[in-house]
């Protein structure tokens, strides 16, 4: 702990000295009587002061919360003397109940309720401690580290339907495969061949054709979905940014696909590259959301391509669903590269146009218009490559953007 | 001088600048000294003046470095004690025939004795 004098110590000492000096010089006992209490306060304060022993433990009432929810932070303070404490809160954790700074006298448990205004991984717990002697002439200060992680997940967007991959995998799932096999979805009729199960015989068709015909079915299979989160660049206005929206979309899509028993992986492609191998289950959902929460725009001029992404992260026949503002050329090139390698690709463009207002001058407006046209041209490039690009802006919902992807894919054909 | 002191006090409080508070108290006490020289008699109200000075100092320094916990009862006790100490010193000065050096030394000795007692008491309570 750092020991320091308060302003009061200097002020009272100076005043007592002046009063005593004037009293002696001018032979006025009243001035000595006036200065004496100040000298006493200083003397007593210096003699009774002692270093306070303080320890703080921070426990949130839960380790994970949803954006907008209130979390109770319980501070268990053990102090040998009265002290004042201030818990430094991250910018997006707003105090809604309790007072900060606060004072404790001895061992106390103080509860502060904070509202998580924005998703993110937070580590609150830096506590500034200040203690005074009884007369407040000496100050003790220190900083304690009681950091505890608190993860705030984004609001999940409601998605009624999702874009399905063109090809399925071999494990059972909820998607009707294009292949034929064991399933419950009728596919076609064909003549009986040796080895067919008797229960597959279609007796009506067989009676009509005077030979045995059997039903063919489509099996229900799962699929692989890779969420491609572009974190090279973002457009920001105030608290909102395209990365915020992209993380929200990633979390919502991961939850929806995992509910369909699909294997979902994540590639966060930006200044830093993170990836998660495709897997199923609730645990994978937490892994994906946690990884997405850690996504930050890291300024990096290094040219990155898909070579930095491990091969196993992008399994064959997987649907790659990119969530990107399409602002950085490295990301847009990587997506086209994916398409060129035969991946089933769809792009949800988190529109940065709302975040960038045209400037006041004519040339600014022309520049903004040119930028918009360039973006249109880029979109056309994708569509020519058979990649649907759905614009997700403030006016549309994520479900609407996905419908756009689905309608494009309904008529487009996969080409190699 | 008293007016200047009040002005310094106001500016110090508004600007939260502690050296001005000390200057303000010093100016006012200098003004008080001038008034005492003019009258030439022992001021019977000096204990109250001492209490008023301490109350002003406590209020001023508390407002620029506010405590998170209520300290008014203790400060009030200090102000009352200040009046008592001042009255005691004035009484001692009157009884001793007005030897100021003795009075000042006595005051310092009393402050020292009280400080030692407080130190011993705080050490005992810690143990």
Q: What labels would you give this structure?
A:
heterodimer; A: 416 residues; alpha+beta; Immunoglobulin-like; six-stranded mixed sheet; five-stranded antiparallel sheet; 24 strands; elongated; B: 127 residues; mainly alpha; 5 helices
In short:
The complex is a heterodimer of chains A (416) and B (127). Chain A is 30% helix and 32% strand. By secondary structure, chain A is of the alpha+beta class.
Question: Main β-sheet of chain B: number of strands, strand sense, barrel status?
Answer: none
Poorly predicted ranges of chain B: none
Number of domains of chain A: 4
First-residue to last-residue Cα separation of chain A: 68 Å
Give the overall form of chain A.
elongated
Compute the number of helices of chain A: 8
CATH class of the largest domain in chain A: Alpha Beta
Description:
The complex is a heterodimer of chains A (416) and B (127). With 416 residues, chain A is an alpha+beta fold. Chain A has 8 helices and 24 strands. In chain A, a hairpin with a 5-residue loop joins strand 10 and strand 11. In chain A, helix 4 packs antiparallel against helix 5. Chain A is elongated. The model of chain A has no long low-confidence stretch (mean pLDDT 87). With 127 residues, chain B is an all-alpha fold. Chain B has one domain. The radius of gyration of chain B is 17 Å and the shape is globular. Chain B starts with a helix and ends with a helix.
């Amino acid at each position: 702990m750092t020991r320091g004098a308060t302003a009061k110590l200097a002020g009272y000492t100076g005043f007592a000295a002046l009063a005593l000096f004037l009293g002696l010089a001018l032979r006025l006992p009243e001035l000595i009587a006036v200065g004496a209490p100040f000298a006493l306060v200083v003397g007593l304060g210096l003699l009774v002061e002692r270093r306070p022993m303080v320890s703080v433990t921070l426990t949130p009432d839960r380790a994970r919360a949803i954006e907008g929810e209130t979390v109770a932070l319980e501070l268990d303070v053990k102090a040998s003397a009265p002290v004042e404490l201030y818990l430094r809160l991250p910018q997006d954790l707003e105090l809604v109940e309790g007072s900060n700074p606060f004072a404790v006298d001895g061992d106390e448990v103080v509860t502060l309720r904070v509202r998580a205004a924005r998703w993110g991984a937070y580590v609150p717990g830096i506590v500034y401690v200040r203690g005074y002697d009884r007369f407040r002439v000496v100050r003790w200060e220190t900083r304690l580290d009681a950091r505890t992680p608190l993860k705030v997940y984004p609001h999940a967007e409601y998605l009624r339907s999702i874009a399905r991959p063109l090809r399925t995998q071999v494990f059972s799932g909820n998607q009707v495969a294009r292949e034929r096999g064991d399933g419950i979805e009728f596919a076609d009729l064909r003549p009986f061949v040796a080895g067919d199960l008797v229960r597959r015989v279609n007796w009506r068709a067989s009676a009509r054709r005077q030979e045995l015909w059997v039903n063919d079915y489509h099996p229900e299979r799962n699929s692989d979905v890779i969420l491609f989160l572009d974190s090279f660049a973002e457009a920001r206005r105030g608290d909102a940014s395209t990365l915020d929206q992209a993380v929200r979309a990633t979390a919502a899509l991961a939850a929806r696909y995992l509910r369909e028993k699909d294997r979902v992986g994540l590639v966060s492609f930006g200044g830093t590259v993170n990836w998660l191998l495709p897997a199923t289950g609730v645990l994978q959902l937490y892994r994906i959301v946690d990884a997405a929460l850690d996504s930050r725009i890291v300024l990096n001029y290094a040219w990155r391509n898909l070579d930095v992404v491990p091969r196993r992260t992008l399994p064959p026949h997987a649907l790659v669903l990119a969530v990107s503002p399409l602002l950085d050329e490295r990301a847009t090139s990587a997506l086209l590269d994916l398409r060129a390698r035969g991946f089933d690709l769809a792009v949800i463009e988190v529109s940065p146009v709302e975040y960038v207002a045209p400037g006041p001058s004519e040339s600014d407006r022309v520049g903004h218009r040119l930028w918009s046209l360039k973006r249109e041209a880029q979109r056309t490039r994708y569509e020519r490559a058979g990649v649907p690009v759905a614009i997700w802006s403030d006016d549309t919902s994520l479900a609407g953007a996905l419908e756009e992807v689905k309608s494009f894919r309904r008529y487009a054909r996969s080409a190699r | 001088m008293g007016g200047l002191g009040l002005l310094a006090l106001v500016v110090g409080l508004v600007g939260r600048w502690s050296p001005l508070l000390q200057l303000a108290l010093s100016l006012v006490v200098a003004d008080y000294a001038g008034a005492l020289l003019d009258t030439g008699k022992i001021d019977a109200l000096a204990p109250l003046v001492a209490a008023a000075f301490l109350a002003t100092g406590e209020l001023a320094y508390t407002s620029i470095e506010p405590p998170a916990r209520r300290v008014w009862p203790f400060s009030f006790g200090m102000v009352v004690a200040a009046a008592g100490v001042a009255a005691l010193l004035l009484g001692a000065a009157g009884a001793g025939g007005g030897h100021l050096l003795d009075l000042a030394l006595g005051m310092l000795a009393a402050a020292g004795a009280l400080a030692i007692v407080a130190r011993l008491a705080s050490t005992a309570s810690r143990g």
